[in-house]
Amino acid sequence: AHSLEKVREAKLQKADFAVFSPIFSTPNKGEPVGLAKLREVCEKVRPFPVLALGGINETNYKAILEVADGFGAIRFLNVAENLRKLAGEISRKAAKIAKIAKKERKD
Questions:
Q1: Residue among 36, 32, 28, 78 nearest 57 (CA)
Q2: What is the CATH code for 4-106?
Q3: How many CB atoms lie within 10 A of CB 23?
Q4: How many Cβ atoms from other residues are within 10 Å of residue 27's Cβ?
């Protein structure tokens, strides 16, 4: 999703989560929305889980995890050392997303 409206649409359609992008600059993905917009979207649709995508790397992933419920990052996650480093953080976020998704399905 590239807008708050599209994230809300995903929530209304009972998706398990939405992917919001691009957060940071990344090749061929258009103008980045930035961390502030990601924060705004996440706050407005809580407890619906929002994952971030686009330009996420070793210098900014922690800021993403403070705002979003998780992230995807193709180049960053293709490095084994980065995967080991993130295993604990990603595991905690995944458990949170599963709990929220389960609650949403009950509502």
A1: 78
A2: 3.20.20.70
A3: 25
A4: 7
